[in-house]
Amino acid sequence: MPVILDPTAELQPISRTLTPVVPEELRSIALVDISKPKGGILLDRVEEGLRSRFEKVKIVRYQKPTFAKPAPQDLRAEIARSSQFVVLALAD
Amino acid sequence: MPLPVFQLEDLEGVAHAFPGDRLTLLCFVKEDCPTCRLILPIIDRWSECFSPQLSVLVIGQSTEGNRRLESRHGVQSAILDDSRLLVSFRNKIDVVPTLILADPVGSGLARVMGFKKEEWQELEGVLSHRISCYASAEVDWPALPELRPGCGSLSSDPEQVRRLEAELDGPRLRSRPIEIGSATDEFEFLFEQGFTDGLPVIPPSPERVHSMLAGTRRQPQDLVAVVPPNMGQATVEKTAINAVMAGCRPEYLPIVIAALEAVCTDEFNIHGVMATTMGASPVLVVNGPIRHRIEMNMKQGALGQGNRPNATIGRALRLVLANVGGARPGGIEQATLSSPLKFTMCFAEWEEMSLWEPLHVERGFSASDSVVTAFGMTSGPTLVVDQTSRTAAQLAGSIGQAADAAFHPRAHGLTDVLLVIPPEHVATLETEGYQKEDLRNRIQEVTAVPLRELQRDSISGVGLDPAEASQLSPERLAARVPKFASPSDIHIVVAGGTAGKFTGIFHGWSAGPRGTQPVSRRIEEV
Asked: Does B234 touch chain A (CB under 8 A)?
C-alpha cells in the first residue's frame, strides 16, 4: 500500500466561538484601524453608534502601523489586555 | 566492531536472535544464486560438525526462495527470512554468499564473499581452532571449483537501497505517514487532499523524502521558518516533503531552504505578499556557483518553462507556503486576479554576461557565495520592446517610460521593479559605459514629473487628491517627483538569450518597510 508523508504542518485547529454580548457586562471595546484608506471614517461612524447605545462603555481606538503586515505582537497584547471586544475596520 | 543486533524467524516461524551465547556463523544467501546453492551443503556440513559450539544462521533474502532452498535443494540448516532485507542491508552485504564469523558477543571475526576455495578452507581452519574441534567436517573439497564469484545482494539493488535507507531513517522522520488505498490513484488522492497547486505533484513517499534530505547537512527536525498565516513550523523535513512534491532534485533543496528563510522575515513579509488582493508572489533570483552546478537556466528562455531547477525550486517554495503556512486561494490568500507567478518564478542571473556587479555582490555577499534573493512582485515580466535605441541614454529612457506603468503611471513612490536585462540591451547600455546607478538615475530622471501632474482628473481617478493638492505650496506642486521613492527600488539583473532587444520588468507590490523588501540568503550547499 503506497505511503506518503504529510506535507502540512499537521496543526490541530482550535474551534472558537464568538464571545456572547451581555450588555450589562459590557465595559470596553477596541476599535482597530488597519490603516487602509478611509478605515478611520468607518470607525468614526461605528464609534458614534456604539457610544449612543452603550454610554458607559470605554471605547479605545487603535491603529496598525500598516495594513500590509500583521499587527505587532505588542499591539495585539495591549488590545487583548484592555478590551473585551474588538472591531476591525478593513478597507477603503 | 559489534555487528547489528537482529531477530529473524525461520520458515517454521521460530525466532532466532543474534548475537546468541556462542560463536556464530552468519551466512547470507539467495536462492537464485548458483554459488549460494553450491556452498550450502558445506554450511550444512559445518553446522553438523561444529554444533553445538557453533551457531549457524543461514539468512535468505526472499521467503519464496527460502522455501525452494529447503524443498528443492534439501538445505538442512534453518533458513531465516530476511525478505525485508534490513539485516542484509545493515550488515552491508553487497554480494551473496557472504559469510560473517562472529564471537559470542556479536563482534565480527572474519568475512568472506563469494566462493574462493582457499579462503573457505582457511575459515574452516579458524572454526576448528576456535572451538577446539579437530574432527573432519568431511567437506569434499577436491570436488569443488577453485573459484566461483557470488551474485549481487538484493539489499544492494538501487530501488531497495532507497527503501531501506528510508526505513532505517524512519525514526528521524516525524511526519504523519498517510496510507493510500491500493485501489486509489496516488495522484488523484493528492489532489483530493488539497496538497497540490492545481498541477500534479510527485507523491512524497518516505523513500523520496529520505533521498531529498541527502541534499542538506541540516537535521530533519531543524526549524527552517515559522510560516504565516497559520504560523506553521516548516522543518527541514517538511520542506523536503514539499520539494519532493514540486519535482526538485536533492541538490536543489538548499536553495528552497534559503528561499524559505528569506521570505519568512519581517522585511520580506510573506504574510502580506501572499494575502494581498493584488496577487503578489515571491520572485527568486539565484546567484553564485550553484547556478552552474545544478544547471539552472539563465540564458535563452530563463523566465519560462523547460528547465527543472528553475521550474521546481520556485514551486517548492510555493507549496511550503500553501501546505505548511496555509496560504491558499480563497482563504487568507485573497488575490483578485492572481498571477502565474504564484505557481513558480525562479531563475539565475547570467553574471558572466553582465557589465556590473552581480546582484548578490551588490547586496553584500562574496562573488563565490551562492545566494538566493527573494522579491515580492505582483506581475511580470512585462516586455520593453526597444529595438531601435542605439545609446544607453535612449534605452535607459525607454526602460524608464515602461517602468512608469508599474501600479499606474500616476502612482509614484509606492512600488519597486525588478529589471531583467538580456545581453543585447546590456550591449547597448555598454556603449556609454553605463553603471547600474546611471541606469537607475536615468529612469528616475525620465519618470520625474511636477507633483501637480500627478493629480486626479477626468481621465483617471488615480493620483493626488486635488483637495490635498490645494493645501500645498506652488513650489511643492512644481517639484518634480520621480517614479520611485528611491533609486534602490530599481533592482537590476542580467539574464536571457543573446538575440532580442527586449528588457523584462517585474512590477512590485507595496515597497519598503510597510510592505515588502527584497531579502537575500546564502545557500548552504552539501
From this structure: yes
